[in-house]
Amino acid sequence: MAQLVESDVGLGFGQLDPSWNRVSKNATRIESKKGGYYVFAVRNKGEGRTLFILMSESGAVYDANFTGEFEALQ
After folding, report:
1. CB within 8 A of 68, min separation 6: which ones?
2. pLDDT truncated to tens, each residue of the chain (74 aa)?
3. For labeling, which of 13, 18, 49, 63 is most exposed (least CB within 10 Å)?
4. What is the pTM of this model?
């Protein structure tokens, strides 16, 4: 999360609010697994938003958004 809070990494939603650095590990869950990829959901109760992160089985992050919809998985 720190990288997404420190700068806009070009994922379309800009820079995350610093409150994302305080989200507990318990606020993260695996939303789905499809074709060698995981979608993780990270809930920030303070903001009332969930960030979805598309990650490979090896841990590489490919995309992130607030919709949970990823073209690569369509």
Report:
1. 31, 39, 41, 50, 52
2. 888 899 988 888 889 999 999 999 999 999 999 888 999 999 999 999 999 999 999 999 899 999 999 987 76
3. 18
4. 0.88
